[in-house]
């Protein structure tokens, strides 16, 4: 991998909470800071495309994401995305020629101690470097085919379907 393209769309991974009532907004993308602090041995650049909770990501946002990724030179692409509509977005990104695209996110904000954000990002970075061209989801320590996974809201985790 010569260079990793990272496109951020918001989601829990970037949420900032303001009070005990869980009032929040999607803040600055956290992934660049996290990768720098970890001292990764690859180049990357971040395109902060959206700052939305994934419940509010719509078809036009997904088409913008698809066009943005398709227009870049990098073959390895990591997308940070909220978990509620990650599967739907991954399905829209399928079929972009010559690219390995891995979507990941977090079930708790990256700023929180004990967040799964770092683990999921690490899993996604490994996946994007080793998988063939295609679109994948990296969550809960697994790599998922977007056509064979769903988010189980009650269990707060991703699981196989079919």
Automatic annotation (TrEMBL):
One of its GO terms (molecular function) is asparaginase activity. Residues 4-160 form the L-asparaginase N-terminal domain. Transmembrane segments: none annotated. The active site is at 12 (o-isoaspartyl threonine intermediate). PROSITE patterns: ASN_GLN_ASE_3. SUPFAM superfamilies: Glutaminase/Asparaginase. InterPro entries: Asp/glu_Ase-like_sf, Asparaginase/glutaminase-like, L-asparaginase_N, L-asparaginase_N_sf. Signal peptide: none annotated. This is Asparaginase. Pfam families: Asparaginase (PF00710). Substrate binds at residues 54, 83-84. It comes from Thermomonas aquatica.
């Amino acid at each position: 991998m010569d260079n990793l393209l990272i496109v951020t769309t918001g989601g829990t991974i970037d949420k900032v909470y303001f009070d005990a009532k869980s009032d929040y907004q999607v803040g600055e993308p956290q992934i660049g800071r996290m990768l720098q602090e970890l001292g990764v041995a690859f180049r990357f650049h971040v395109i902060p495309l959206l700052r939305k909770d994934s419940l509010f990501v719509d078809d036009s946002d997904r088409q913008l994401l698809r066009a943005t990724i398709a227009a870049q030179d990098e073959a390895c692409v990591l997308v940070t995305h909220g978990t509620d509509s990650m599967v739907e977005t991954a399905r829209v990104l399928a079929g972009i020629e010559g690219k390995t695209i891995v979507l990941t996110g977090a079930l708790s904000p990256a700023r929180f101690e004990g967040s799964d954000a770092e683990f999921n990002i690490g899993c996604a970075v490994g996946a994007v470097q080793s998988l063939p061209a295609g679109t994948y989801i990296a969550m809960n320590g697994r790599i998922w085919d977007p056509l064979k996974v769903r988010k189980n809201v009650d269990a707060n985790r991703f699981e196989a379907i079919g």
